[in-house]
From TrEMBL:
InterPro entries: InsJ-like_HTH, IS150/IS1296_orfA-like, Trp_repressor/repl_initiator, WH-like_DNA-bd_sf. This is Insertion element IS150 protein InsJ-like helix-turn-helix domain-containing protein. Signal peptide: none annotated. Belongs to the IS150/IS1296 orfA family. It comes from the Bacteria. It comes from Bacillus cereus HuB4-4. Residues 8-55 form the Insertion element IS150 protein InsJ-like helix-turn-helix domain. One of its GO terms (molecular function) is sequence-specific DNA binding.
Length: 55
């Protein structure tokens, strides 16, 4: 599984929120599970950018 930086995760989340692609379409194009994208989006909605900062 590919490791994504915090910046990459944020870009993916914003791409989803601002675009017309589904989780499944994005997952397929990025080579990752759509569930991962769904989790990132939910984390972002709950915690904003801080969701991806190292603790």
């Amino acid at each position: 599984m590919a490791k994504f930086t915090a910046d990459e995760k944020i870009q993916i989340v914003l791409r989803y929120l601002n675009g017309n692609e589904s989780y499944r379409e994005m997952g397929r194009s990025l080579g990752i599970s759509d569930t991962i994208i769904l989790n990132w989006v939910n984390q972002y909605k709950q915690n904003g950018l801080e969701a991806f900062l190292k603790r």
